[in-house]
Amino acid sequence: MSSSYESWRSAATNRRPTHPTDNPKIPGPIYADLDPAPRPKPVIQLLAFGFIIFLGLLQFLPASHFRDPSDPYRKWVPFNSDASSYSTSKDGGNPTLFRANDEEEGMVHVVSWMDCLDLKVLAVLANSTLSSSRYPDLVHFHFFTPQGDKDKVSFYKLKVLFPHSNLELHGQEEVKEMIRTATSEAEYDSLKFEEIAPFVIPRVHQSLRKFIYVSASLILKGRVEELAGIDLSTHAVAAAEDCSKRLNSYVNSDVLGAIQRSTSKPWASVTPYVKDTCMPELSLLLIDARKLDKEFLEAVLWWSKVLNWSDRSSKENPAITLALYNRYLKLSNSWLVKEPASLEIIEKSTVVHYDGPKIVCSEFGNDTIPGPSHGNLWINYLPSMSNQILGS
Ligand SMILES: *[C@@H]1O[C@H](CO)[C@@H](O)[C@H](O)[C@H]1NC(C)=O
Ligand SMILES: *[C@@H]1O[C@H](CO)[C@@H](O)[C@H](O)[C@H]1NC(C)=O
Ligand SMILES: *[C@@H]1O[C@H](CO)[C@@H](O)[C@H](O)[C@H]1NC(C)=O
User: Fold this and answer.
1) What is the distance in A from the centroid of ligand 2 to the CA of 143?
2) Domain around 151
3) Is residue 386 included in any domain, yes or no?
4) In sequence order, what E strands does the chain have?
5) What CA–CA distance (Å, rounded) separates 283 from 198?
6) Of 64-68, 132-136, 150-154, 328-332, which gets the smallest average pLDDT?
7) Is residue 232 part of a domain?
8) Mean of the pLDDT values across residues 179-183?
9) Whole-angstrom Cα distance, residue 312 to residue 325?
10) How far apart are CA 136 and CA 107, in angstroms?
11) What residue's CA is closest to ligand 3, atom 9?
């Protein structure tokens, strides 16, 4: 082997300098038995192979960083970084929204319920929520309407007005069915679905965990992600307190005292009820369904029953208030719904009542003509095309 190599070398070195262009037609000697490439040591081969496998396996490691799609700088954020450190990098944005283990990268779910469909009211709610939000891309609406997802026309109308929004229409039947099976007919008829629905919806739609429940006839001017980011600690519900309404104007304190002393139900307070407790504002709630008591619906229905509420359906039912008694986180007063009575109130408030014309359900369940408007604020939250699309 080495001898043939030597002879090839000597032939080449001998020939080249002497006759570089001589007889080009005569090829040089061909040596078929060239040495194979030097073989690397098996250990090195094994190491290299192992290294490639190692690189391949790296991709199976869990992701450690993510980028917020709405962040203009597309900064990489570690998944397990302290939530507060991230919020400082976002100039004091919302802390818990982007918490590491929060599913779906901090979507804010906004849920609403409407007994009779009124697209204009929904459009004002969606527009006000989106235009006040810092990250409108992360807002996801779930509107529970009589026809729900079967009503494609309404869905597309809303989609035309809010093309970039995440919104879904859901039916109400499953939620109503769950309430119906737990109640007698008289009780069922006396219930206000709009009030009870937020506590039943997460049992039907289990993917909804932490969400904001908002009455459709509100105009939201505060940032929903700030509300959604509030830490509920052990509570399942957060609500603002409305001290213009006191418990004793809805339920007789003596009757309530007697019930409290004689019952052993787990949801009744062990200490006497404070009779002038402020009522929670039920039209804007933050709910963490994972912490919601399984018996919550039962507790509400029980209170309705012991107070004979089906006999006097005209008055506001305190059953939900009693079921929530001492069990909800009190939101700051800024989240209390205000009446848009003056420009000053409107400017300062984070949430006000819808003041436009509104379709009211008749007692037959069919829609009536829209009532009169009480102000002009709502007009600011109707996209310009909405009259053509929704009809005026
Ligand atoms: C409810 O009605 C029952 C019988 O109709 C009566 O015994 C009870 O005292 C009533 N309860 C209240 C709180 O009014
Ligand atoms: C609603 O239905 C009732 C009975 O079905 C009917 O008498 C009433 O006129 C209807 N109202 C409207 C606004 O359609
Ligand atoms: C909300 O409505 C106003 C017009 O009143 C419009 O300028 C704005 O673009 C709308 N915002 C959204 C998110 O649709």
Assistant:
1) 25
2) 88-381
3) no
4) 65-67, 76-78, 108-113, 139-144, 166-170, 210-214, 218-220, 237-246, 278-288, 328-331, 351-353
5) 10
6) 64-68
7) yes
8) 90
9) 22
10) 10
11) 383
Query: Is any ligand 2 atom within 6 A of the Cβ of residue 364?
Result: yes
Q: What angle do CA 201, 203, 209 make, to 5 degrees?
A: 80
Which structure tokens are listed for 295? 């018996």
Nearest bound ligand to the CA of residue 133: 3
Distance from the alpha carbon of residue 255 to the mean position of ligand 1, in angstroms: 10
The mean pLDDT value for 109-114 works out to: 97
Atom 2 of ligand 3, nearest CA residue:
383
- How far apart are the CA of 99 and the centre of ligand 2, in A? 50
* Number of neighbouring beta carbons within 10 Å of residue 291: 14
Put simply, whether the predicted model's pTM sits higher than 0.85 gets the answer: no
66 pairs with which residues across the strands?
77
What CATH number does the domain containing 188 carry? 3.90.550.10
Query: Is there a domain that residue 95 lies in?
Result: yes
pLDDT of residue 64: 62
For the segment 192-227, what is each residue's pLDDT rounded down to a tens digit? Answer: 899 999 999 999 999 999 999 999 999 999 999 999
Q: What is the pLDDT of residues 240-262, one digit of tens each?
A: 999 999 999 899 999 999 999 99
pLDDT in tens, 308-338: 876 665 567 889 999 999 999 999 999 999 9
DSSP code string of 34-63: PPPPPPPPHHHHHHHHHHHHHHHHHTTSPP
Residue to mutate (ligand 1; options 187, 308, 311, 322; most atoms within 8 A of CB): 308
Contact 199, 300 (CB under 8 A): yes
> What is the residue type of 240?
A
Region of 290 please: left (phi>0), alpha (psi -120 to 50) or beta.
Answer: alpha
Task: Give the C-alpha distances (Å, rounded to integers) separating 375 from 90, 101, 212.
Answer: 37, 43, 26
Percent of the chain with pLDDT over 90: 56
- Which range is most confident: 4-18, 52-66, 147-161, 371-385? 147-161
Average pLDDT over residues 169-198: 90
* Residue 223 in domain: yes
Say how many domains are in the chain. Answer: 1
d(CA 274, CA 272): 6
Q: Look at residue 53 in the predicted model and tell me its pLDDT.
A: 82
287, 211 contact by CB (below 8 A): yes
**How far is Cα 61 from Cα 57, in angstroms, rounded to an integer?**
8
